[in-house]
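dumping the sequnces here before i forget
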Amino acid sequence: MTGRPIAEEDLHAYIDDALDPVRRDEVQAYLDGHADVARRVAAMAEQRRALRAAFAPVAEEPVPSGLSLPWLIEKRRRSWLAPWQGSWRSAAAALLLLGLGGLGGWFAHLLSPEATGIAALKEEAAANYAVYASDRVRPVELRAADRDELLAWVSKRLKRPVALPDLSASGYRFMGGRLVATAHGPAGLFLYDDDRGTRVAMLVRPMAFERDTPMSAHEQGTLAGFAWADQGLGYSLMATAPAERLHPLADEVRRQVDGQLRS
Amino acid sequence: MKDMMLLVEPLIPALRRYAKALLRDPAGADDLVQDCLERVIARWHQRRADGDARTWVFSILHNLAMTRLSRARRRWHVALEDADETATAAPPTQEHGVMHRDLMRALETLPEEQRSVLLLVSVEDLSYAEAARVLDIPIGTVMSRLARAREKLLRATEAEAPATGRGTSLRRVK
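..and the predicted 3d for all of it:
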């Protein structure tokens, strides 16, 4: 027994079944000894039950199609894209009206699916490769020895498990990695190198669009890259190496990542 | 996106129920839920990752409902005057028709602040702490509003239906 006096709050918590067993027994004992209070509590409990019963049918109705979450997500996406996805004529008219050919084009590009899907990922990968893979002092924030910590960190920020491929059989050692910023949120950047100092970078981030996309090549100057998306995660593998050398490595990464995330 | 589907989609029936009970206007309630879901989609990335999705979504819905109610307050009171049975959430069946109608009428007489607490706790099964977060008020205020709501509901239905046998013996006891 707690010995605390029974308060009005206790009676409501009793009605809502929100008391711990000890306190509930105390309230029950009090009610057993106070018939008038017990009647009032019983009446309130009955009203609670009636209220629930009155509104229960609403929650059992089929959800109207206008409240379907996938449909609302799609609707929002379209409302963003719509002005730029119309006919060429209306897009051109919009640009003319803006009188800002360059800026308008950039804006259209920003809102186009190309700039939010795999194409954006490719650009982000190239930008991050240029900054980090070329860094001779501190290319990675967490080294290979801190692999587990790195994986936990990136997985936490990306809000989903991320896989780390082992490319040693292909001659690439894992160097480490870091969390990097993209226009579409945080991404994980993992670096590998070989005996000749060639650095390979894998960028991974969640995809809002083009969530499952076959692998395609991209090149930026001497940089070669391959990008794809699988189960909502987008990947890009980049290196200053010929595309034909990088391609089998990208296939290997995709195979391993797929295996790790499905297992 | 995937966690939003997992966390928000199961809430939609309860969101409709709360909106209908609060607004007492079936079509307007679904519009409100749609507004709410659109906001949830737009602001999902702003949600605190460690926060509870249910209280977050309910607080968005509640705030939208309060805005709509205060905007339409005059119209709302008029609508109540001639609210017909189709405006009630569930058509009363014969056996509990009288009680249902009295209860709904009594619910309508509650101030919004008491009605929302009562619905969140009694119908939506939110804990007192969760209701406090949804309404952005201290938990003590939740308790006092809940107590006042229940007292008022009890008095209203007793006054309406003294023949139910509970009668006036149910006076408040300290």
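Chain B has one domain: 2-165.
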